Structure to design on (382 residues):
């Protein structure tokens, strides 16, 4: 056997040697690398892979088939928000001169979605919060003329950024509060606070601002704390508590007020509770919310990945569906008549669920994609 193997190797070597000798004078055709001028048409899903030890990445996937269309690269601890027409992506991120010492630079980027190229960039302040990406940490006012960026030194404040002027025009102190949810009109935002209240702030085009409108205590931070990532439902904001109750806050006036609470877990066996980061997503055309839930909850399990996704009819204020989950800690949903739901988990997986309506709403897993990173927040252009 050894002799036959050696003979075969020698014969193969001779043939290869002749082939190389014949081709050694043939020119090698260099490979031409190209870059597509525009990404493929169709709806997009933007997934922020946030990094803390280098540049972050926003991956652009086909929203229906998860085909990779490309990516853009902001800096460290990036946040992102998409324009209403889906044509411009905005990011804030941090650049370190020396990482362990030296200058820290905060940069606001505008990205053209069609070409995934930079439209503009400018520096703003040096107080941007270096935290996990969350929707309320970079948002746009109703007219999209201003961006609102969360600061933390650890003292909290909001940078008001005039996008057209390419400059920060104000830093509004928001002591003890977190995030900025823009109003549905005007130059105003609402923030959730650590004393159980909500506060609304108004500002003007010159960077002026006044005292906030502060609510009465709305939630008990010890008995039933709220996740800081809520969703806007018309003129109200809806937040989910650690215990599984929806808090509906009307911020249309000068001072936020509690409209109602909607318990989701009352009478449900198994110790169910919400868990994750972006724990709730809302589809306006169907007036439906989707919530990440896990069983056997305990003090501190509010960061656990989901074992089920619950569907909530906001009209009847009831749970109308419970479907298996894949340990997601972040949700996003389209604003289409037939919702498409997206989830992401800390293992780097992104999932697409089709929503089957009826007396009981069910979710069917239809696509999955591994971005090989940390998918924090997701944005959709429909």
């Amino acid at each position: 056997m050894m002799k036959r193997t050696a003979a075969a190797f020698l014969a193969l070597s001779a043939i290869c040697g002749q082939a190389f000798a014949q081709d050694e004078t043939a020119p090698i055709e260099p490979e031409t690398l190209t870059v597509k001028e525009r990404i493929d048409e169709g709806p997009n899903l933007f997934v922020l892979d946030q990094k803390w030890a280098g540049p972050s990445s926003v991956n652009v996937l086909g929203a229906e088939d998860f085909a990779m269309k490309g990516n853009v690269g902001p800096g460290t601890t990036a946040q992102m928000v998409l324009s209403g027409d889906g044509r411009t992506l905005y990011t804030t991120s941090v650049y370190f001169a020396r990482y362990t010492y030296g200058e820290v630079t905060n940069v606001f980027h505008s990205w053209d979605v069609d070409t995934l190229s930079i439209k503009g960039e400018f520096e703003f302040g040096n107080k941007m919060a270096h935290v996990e990406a969350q929707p309320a940490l970079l948002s746009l006012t109703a007219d999209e003329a201003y961006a609102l960026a969360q600061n933390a030194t650890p003292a909290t404040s909001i940078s008001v950024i005039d996008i057209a002027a390419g400059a920060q025009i104000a830093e509004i102190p928001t002591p003890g509060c977190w995030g900025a949810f823009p109003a549905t009109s005007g130059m105003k935002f609402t923030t959730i606070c650590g004393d159980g209240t909500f506060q609304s702030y108004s500002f003007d085009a010159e960077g002026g601002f006044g005292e906030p409108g502060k609510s009465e205590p709305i939630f008990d931070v010890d008995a039933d704390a709220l996740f800081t990532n809520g969703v806007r439902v018309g003129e109200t904001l809806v937040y989910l508590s650690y215990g599984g109750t929806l808090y509906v806050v009307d911020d249309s006036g000068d001072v936020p007020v509690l409209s109602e609470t909607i318990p989701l877990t009352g009478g449900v066996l198994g110790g169910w509770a919400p868990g994750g980061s972006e724990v709730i997503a809302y589809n306006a055309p169907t007036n439906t919310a989707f919530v990440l839930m896990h069983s056997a909850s305990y003090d501190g399990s509010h960061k656990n990945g989901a074992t089920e996704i619950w569907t909530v009819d906001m009209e009847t204020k009831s749970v109308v569906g419970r479907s298996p989950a894949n340990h997601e800690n972040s949700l996003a949903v389209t604003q289409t008549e037939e919702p498409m739901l997206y989830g992401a988990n800390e293992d780097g997986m992104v999932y697409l669920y089709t929503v089957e309506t009826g007396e009981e709403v069910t979710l069917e897993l239809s696509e999955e994609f591994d971005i090989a990173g940390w998918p924090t927040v997701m944005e959709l252009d429909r």
About this structure: The domain at 268-382 is CATH 2.130.10.10 (Methylamine Dehydrogenase; Chain H). DSSP finds one helix and 29 strands in the chain. The chain has a mean pLDDT of 93. The radius of gyration is 25 Å.
